[in-house]
Amino acid sequence: MCAKKVIKTGQIAHPFLKHLIDHSLNLSQQNLTDQDMPEITRFLLDHPNIRSLDLSLNHIGDQGLADFTERNLVIVQVNFEGNNISDKGLAMFAYINHIITEVNFARNRISKKGIAAFTAKNAVCYASYFSPYQCH
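Now predict its structure.
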């Protein structure tokens, strides 16, 4: 995905660092896919002070959502708006998630039935956002 670069001190700077502001990592519109999730979760584990993550308007699907949810130990607020997440991924998220309290799933491939199933299974999120129309 992103190439690492050498900075003046001789240390390697991770390309995600330029998207970090305070306790928030904004990776919106970075053409991220399911295959990028292991790198993202490794970065987050190395930076446990990050609490908010924006993954909106990428190409993340159910597998990427599953990989992220299973490995997430630090993020409590995440934006998945405008990705390729379906009812299946949403149900898995509701079942596996143990830390995220606020999530945005607007503009994905999620039906009213999927939202109802999420609501029934969700035990952690107190704020979940969906849109009345879906894209993809």
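Residues 16-129 form a domain with the Leucine-rich repeat, LRR (right-handed beta-alpha superhelix) fold (CATH 3.80.10.10).
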